[in-house]
Structure formats: C-alpha cells, structure tokens
Amino acid sequence: MEPSATTGGSETTRLVSPRDRGGAGGGLRLKSLFTEPSEALPEEPKPVEMSFHHCHRDPQPQLGLTPERLQAQRQLCAACAVCCIFMAGEVVGGYLAHSLAIMTDAAHLLADVGSMMGSLFSLWLSTRPATRTMTFGWHRSETLGALASVVSLWMVTGILLYLAFIRLLHSDYHIEGGAMLLTASIAVCANLLMAFVLHQAGPPHSHGSRGAEYAPLEEGPGETLPLGNTSVRAAFVHVLGDLLQSLGVLAASVLIYFKPQYKAADPISTFLFSICALGSTAPTLRDVLRVLMEGTPRSVGFEPVRDALLSVPGVRATHELHLWSLTLTYHVASAHLAIDSTADPEAVLAEATSRLHSRFGFSCCTLQVEQYQPEMAQCLRCREPPQA
C-alpha cells in the first residue's frame, strides 16, 4: 500500500499492484509508506500538584474505615459477642434466682448489645462518600449512634427503676441466694472483660491531616483533644455503669445468701445503681449535644483561633469565624480574612490554613480572603459573638 495525498490533516492509503512495482530496468521497487505531517494535536493538560496550603490535605481521599475506626469496629464486635453470651447466662440465672437485680443487669446488657449494634451500623454508614445532598458525608452518624445508645440505656433503666419501686412496696417475692451469688459473680467477670476489650488508649501523635486520627500540636489552655471513637467511648461508659451495678448486685447477693431475711437488698441495689448508671452517661450526652448543636469543639477555644489568624502577616481583621465539629475528633473551621491591599492573598491563605491545621488539628478549613475596608469596624455582622 502506498500513501496518497493527505487532505485536511488526515492521510489515506491505496493498494499498489505488482505492475506498478516494475521500473525501467525491470527492478522491483520496495514498498514504502510515507506519512505527511498532519496538524498538531493539542496536548492533554497534565495534572498539577497543588501546594501545601491547598484545601486537600491528603493526596487522595481515604476509602473505607480509617485505622482508628477499624480498631473501634473490632472492639465493638468483640464486646458485642461477649455481651450476648453473658446476657443469656444472666437471663437464665436471674430467672432461676427470682432476682430483679440480676434481670436488671441482664436488661442493661441487652441495652448495650443494641447500642453496640447501632454503633457498628453507624461506623459502616460513615464510610459512605459525600454526595451533593450530604456534602460532609456521613461522619455524624457516629454521634447519632452514641445518642441512641444513651437514650436506650435511659429508657431501660427507667423501666427497671419502676419495677424496683414496686418490689419495695410489696414483699411477695423470694430470692434464691445461691443462684443469685453465682450469676452476679459471672456478671462481674463479664463486665470486666468487656471493659478491657473496649478500653482504648489515644492514637499515636501525628502531624499529618488524617481526620479523626489527628492530634494537634497546640491546644487551648488546660484542655486536651478527646481521642478515640465516640461510639466506643459511649459503650465503654455503659460497661462501666454495668460493672458498678454488677458489683452492687454481687454485694447484695452475698448479703441475701447469708441473710435471706434481707431480700429487700435486691430492689434497693437495683434502685441505687441504676441511678449511678444514668449519671455515668451524662458526660457522653453533654459531648453529643455539643456536637449536634454545632458548638465550638471542647478542645479548641474561639479566642486562640482568632488570635492565630490575626497574627498572620497581612491580616488586619477577621470576622464570620465559625468553629464546629462533625464528630468529637473531626473539627471544621471557616472565616473571612480582611487583609491589607499590599498583602499577597495566596501567601495569607497558605499561612492561615497551615496554622489552623498544625496548631488546632482542624480537618477542614474554609477561608475567604478579602480587602480590608475601614467600615468593617462598624459593621454589625462583622462583630465577634458575645460570650455564652
């Protein structure tokens, strides 16, 4: 085949017969393919590597659960399995012993199983990517799972408090001291095992932006960043409350075993230690409500963040400063920075973003740079919010 003339930057070929190959001397011409230059194609744009101050702190978004959440998932699965086994044993033991206190402990374990299953579901849900409807993703499902865990424990405890009150009014019940003592001893061991499984140390110190794993270099005065998964923390608080109640039930079972006439210790222990279990959930409920109400992260102060932004060279004023959290460890910040006319906006943006990430551990920062105007000092919307 030989090439024909090209038209419009494209080339065509035609077949060459054997007769066309002969020359004057009978020699055979070698077939060759000539390509005429065509129009140059536009080069594809090469991906540009963004500088350090760009909003994307990680090269690529992480897929699936982070190592911290994988650890939380393993802890919850192990604790849930232990909880189910010993809950079944407590139900049988409480029925044989006719003990409301044992059944109370079993009901608390049932509430723990439900809360742990809800936490596992919220961990799975949090891996879903962000959408145009859920632009922040599903991180806050972890906080909702912790809230459901606390509410479920309060509901079950309220029912058991009512039953304990009825038993205090009426004495028509019998307690098997031996069965109660054995079951209470097993319950204490079960709660100790679950507390060991759910106990979590803080993740290693890191200077990179890794979402929930991030540990800041500088915190607010006198405060530390709450580390660990929220759902695991709520489950751990549940187990501590159950352990306290189990110890009380064990003490009551010892008393009833040796002094059967003091069977009222069964509903009394249920009443007292259920109240303690309710009180143990108060810190978790406070933190969950702070997240849901878009409150400033507990480990970050408004004034230190404002001062850090004002200390950036070229920044004259800052307003519309907002600090909130998606979870206890996923912090978000946004602000307007008013700069001098001679300042470099890109340099200001780079320095301000770097300080927010490195000093306070914000996982997401949105900063708007604008020219400073004298009337900003009198603008009502540009004023700082008052103290709570």
Automatic annotation (TrEMBL):
This protein's record includes keyword Amino-acid biosynthesis: no
Catalysis performed (reactions): Zn(2+)(in) + 2 H(+)(out) = Zn(2+)(out) + 2 H(+)(in)
Upper taxonomic lineage: Eukaryota, Metazoa, Chordata, Craniata, Vertebrata
Organism domain of life: Eukaryota
Cellular component terms per the entry's GO annotation: late endosome membrane; lysosomal membrane; neuron projection; plasma membrane; synaptic vesicle membrane
Similarity field: Belongs to the cation diffusion facilitator (CDF) transporter (TC 2.A.4) family. SLC30A subfamily.
Organism: Camelus ferus
Keyword tags: Antiport, Cytoplasmic vesicle, Endosome, Ion transport, Lysosome, Membrane, Metal-binding, Synapse, Synaptosome, Transmembrane, Transmembrane helix, Transport, Zinc, Zinc transport
Listed Polar residues bias regions: 1-15
Protein purpose: Probable proton-coupled zinc ion antiporter mediating the import of zinc from cytoplasm into synaptic vesicles and participating to cellular zinc ion homeostasis in the brain.
BP GO terms, sorted: response to zinc ion
Localization terms from the record: Cytoplasmic vesicle, Secretory vesicle, Synaptic vesicle membrane; Late endosome membrane; Lysosome membrane; Synapse, Synaptosome
UniProt region (Disordered), positions on chain: 1-45
TM ranges: 76-97, 146-166, 178-198, 235-258
Protein name as it appears in the record: Probable proton-coupled zinc antiporter SLC30A3
